[in-house]
Amino acid sequence: MPTYNLYMGCSVPANYPNYEAAMIKVAEAFGMDFDYMEGVACCGSPNLRAIDHMGWLTVNARTLAIGDKNGHDIVTPCNGCFASLKDAYHLLKHDKEYVQKVNKILKKEGLEFKGAAKPRHFVEALYTDVGIDEIKKKVTKPLDGVGIAIHYGCHVTRPHDVTEFDPVILQELVQATGATVIDYPLWKQCCGATVLPVNEGIAIRLARDKLKSMKDAGAVFVTVVCPACGNQLDLQQLGLKESYGEEYNLPVLFYPQILGLTMGLDEDAVGLSMNRVAAGPILNHLAE
Fold it and tell me: Global pTM?
């Protein structure tokens, strides 16, 4: 297996050690070797980009340039970081003028964007480099067909010509655990996470609509690959219970948590207790 530069971003290590721990343990099981990137900054998504495009581009070009020093692809578990790095990479690969501008700035640190290190989402690397067949071989406690709704997240799927991320990746990864992927009408809709700081009412409504669509379609669990989306769909269930008297009881798990459990990792190893909506019931669906 190749070695990867691991770009954790800000949110996962600060708020979701369960996501990080589950991802690292799953990666180790498949021989994926991670080098934690040092000296990197926040990707600035989405706030910095909205107020200072050149600043946002330079910050992400710098991260890409640090990756270029060893040439290993950059893997991240965060949709926001993935989108920022992919957008910056795509722009720099198609605009020589921007490359000249950022490299002039990066030269002060002895860095240069070359485009050798490609930004990738962890689940895409898992799907492409490990493969579904190898993943299935590691699944010793498959889920018994339980219905799982996938929330992909806006930043990982749009725009497709930039992200190059196909939803089938997550569908097949979920199916590899023995679960059933639940189709629901609002699968493309935003969860409202990025709206929350500017309009709480709309953000809560978006989460409510999304959760209802999942529940009505028969989902028992939800899986995400984005810390912001995971927080929004998990946390807002508590608010909806308090404000609207609605209980959805849809545990929201990061995909590596689900895969880790089916590979035989215990609930502490994947940080199941850190989920706000009790995620323990998923253990009842693991086949011995």
Answer: 0.96
